[in-house]
Every structure is written in C-alpha cells, then in structure tokens.
Amino acid sequence: MKTVSGKLAPAFALSLSLCMAHARVCLAQTLVPSIPSQLSVGVGGTAPISDSDKIALSPNSGLAVFESAASNLVEGDTNQAVDVFLRDVNGVIARQTVSGDGVQADLGGSSPAISQVAPNGAYAVAFVSNATNLVAGVSGGQSQVYLRIHPLNKTILISR
Fold first, then answer.
1. Strands 64-68 and 83-87, how do they pair?
2. What is the value of pTM for the model shown?
3. 121-145 b/e with 16+ CB inside 10 Å = b?
4. How confident is the model over 63-74, as pLDDT tens digits?
C-alpha cells in the first residue's frame, strides 16, 4: 500500500496493488482495499468486450494507462485494433491513441507508459503505434513511439 511519511496516502490515491480477475484488469483502491475496482469498464458501466492489460501507473497520482482490444471502452472506437487508454481517479476513461485533433489511430497502439504529474497538472502518455494518421508525414509500416501531452491534448512523434 502506498504510504507518505509512514502514513496511508489520501483515500483517493490508488494503491500499487494490481490483480487480474476474470481476465479483466483490476486495481485495488486504498479507500476500500478489500474491494477491487475494475480498471477497464465499458461505456455506461458495461463489461468490456475484450481483455485489457499492460498497466502503467503514474507514480504520484491516481492515473493509470493500459491497453485493450475492447471497442466499448469509449464512444466511437471503430478501428478494430488494440488501443491505449487512460483512466483517472474519477473513473473517466479516455483513449490516448488519437491524433492532436482527436481522430482515432487507424492501426491502434500498445505498450503504454505514463509520466509523473507535474505541479501544474501536466503529464504525458507514451505509446507505440504503426498508425499512419497520428501525425503528418508518417507513412506507417513501421512501429513508432508517440507522446500524448496533457492538458494540451497534443500527440507528437518522438521516435524519429
């Protein structure tokens, strides 16, 4: 369990305890450590229609990123590919494998990582994708590393 100076972290902070239950990604919360909260939840609280995995947690916040093939975690997921998602402490899930103007990656993405959250609330999510439509000038056919910068909601190519 996450501690600060030997005391429990605030109740809203997520613990680093991870569990897999029914092949769905779960994350134990410090508020009620005996009752895990499912990390990947479909639109309207429905069960995800596919598995989620490869979780990464921001070391100083309640943000978690993961990859999933489920197309019902966000509205409009029609690329039929694995995508990278972010879930905040309020349970809001947002797809990260999108262009700067919010268009979904045509070939999805994987291997998520997340930075620490800066005092001003900024953070970044890194991921790998073969997509051809995330930034101008990428033709696809080769894995590239991208960075989604928040709160700017900007996606940049960093592997060039």
1. antiparallel
2. 0.77
3. eebbbbbbbbbebbbeebeeeeebb
4. 999 999 999 999
